[in-house]
Write a structure and sequence with these properties.
alpha+beta; Pdz3 Domain; Neutral Protease, domain 2; four-stranded antiparallel beta sheet; two-stranded antiparallel sheet; 17 helices
């Protein structure tokens, strides 16, 4: 029989050096599956017996259960960006459902889901809602006065850049919602206007008109309160929801005109006010001065051009999405669906147009100076001469520093904030 080889021990590592991988591979492996106490040669301590907790029998508290305090419910934690309301502030389901569905145009209720429901009052239902979306947040103090005025100026700027405001009235926009607003085309901004956008600004003008005639009145707030009292406010809110939801037939434009005439003290609505929603007229915001506000345009950098069209990116190439009516781009022959390849001044070289660097190309062009656009249309390359117009400044609304005390008081009554609030 062969001799057993002696067991070799791995040599000790030199001082100041860590053992290598080969040395660690030959090192003896410690049995890690055993408890730590047994690996060290010590006996394992016995675990103390678990204390018996008293149990309740058949759901009735005994002596042991009564001695143990009951567990208190954990307080509700407030989540970020969300306020918890007490349970008593919640309204019954029938009342909340009635309030959401009662103030609606007459043509929209009861709903017929088998066909399209046409109405001319959407500018009231949706436009007034859009107006109070920002005004109520301002009155609650969750937004600054400066931020609200900035958003209001942005809405005025969007309406100014929509040529369809002078083509379609608010009543027609509400009636054609099924065929134009929800089915937009390339030329929709030139032929239509949103009753959300223009309706909210008409609500602002109506509010200012009422406050100018009756400074001590509540403006458009009183009109909506009266419209509610004559409609769902006088109905019975108890009982099944289905029997009360459509008890109020809905309002019409005539109902709104009647209440506007009563709240203004004139008895009827003047023709200039009725034209705000019945005709495609330009809105005049000069009445902002009665609140101590001034509408102006921000100064723009000299040399900036107004393109007159909007672009969309397709794989890095700029394509024309919409061309504004009565703009230099429309007069030059630019159309929706054209791909822009390059642009240049008449005394310069061609600059290739890409979506990432289009802004730098426009900086080389000057307003009023003749230029050329190289486009691709239906697999044909065309050159269009064009002379861009100067860019207009964005609208801005500011508080007049030397406003009289009466204007400041009307501003505080309208906004629910102090004149000095930021």
């Amino acid at each position: 029989m062969g001799r057993a080889l002696p067991r070799l021990r791995p040599p000790a590592p030199r001082p100041g050096r860590r053992p290598g991988r080969a040395l660690l591979a030959r090192a003896p492996v410690r049995p890690l599956h055993l408890p730590r106490a047994r690996r060290r040669g010590r006996a394992r301590r016995p675990r103390a017996p678990r204390r018996q907790r008293p149990r309740c029998r058949t759901g009735v508290l005994g002596a042991g259960c009564a001695a143990r305090p009951r567990r208190q419910p954990r307080p509700r934690r407030r989540q970020r960006g969300r306020r918890l309301r007490p349970a008593r502030a919640r309204q019954p389901r029938a009342v909340s459902r009635l309030e959401r569905q009662a103030l609606a145009p007459r043509a929209l209720g009861p709903f017929d889901y088998g066909r399209e429901n046409y109405t001319r009052e959407l500018w009231i239902a949706e436009g007034f809602t859009s107006y109070y979306d920002g005004l109520l947040v301002l009155r609650s103090g969750e937004i600054s006065v400066k931020a609200h005025l900035q958003r209001l100026a942005e809405s005025i700027g969007r309406l100014r850049d929509t040529p369809g405001r002078l083509v379609q009235s608010l009543e027609d926009s509400s009636f054609d919602a099924w065929i134009k607003l929800y089915r937009p085309q390339d030329d929709s901004p030139n032929a239509s206007v949103s009753y959300y956008l223009k309706g909210s600004l008409v609500a602002l003008l109506l509010d200012l008109w009422l406050r100018e005639l009756r400074p001590s009145g509540s403006g458009l707030d009183g009109v909506l309160a009266e419209l509610w009292q004559r409609g769902p406010g006088r109905l019975e809110t108890r009982g099944p929801t289905t029997s009360n939801t459509y008890s109020y037939p809905g309002f019409t434009v005539e109902d709104l005109e009647q209440i506007l005439g009563e709240q203004s003290g004139l008895g009827e609505v003047p023709g200039a006010i009725r034209a705000l929603w019945s005709k495609p007229v330009e809105l005049d915001f000069a009445s902002l001065a009665q609140l101590g506000l001034r509408l102006s345009e921000k100064p723009v950098q000299p040399g900036l051009i107004d393109l007159g069209f909007t672009l969309q990116d397709r794989a890095g190439s700029p394509w024309v999405e919409f061309v504004r009516t009565d703009s230099p781009a429309e007069r030059a022959g630019l159309a929706s669906g054209d791909e822009l390849l390059a642009a240049r001044r008449l005394d310069g070289s061609w600059l290739r147009l890409r979506s990432a660097r289009a802004a730098r190309v426009w900086d080389h062009l000057q307003p009023g100076a003749p230029a050329e656009l190289l486009i691709s249309r239906r697999e044909r390359v065309l050159t269009l001469p064009i002379a861009f117009a100067a860019a207009r400044g964005a609208p801005q609304i500011e508080r007049i520093g030397d406003a009289d005390p009466a204007a400041r008081a009307r501003f505080e009554a309208w906004s629910g904030r102090r004149w000095s609030d930021p």
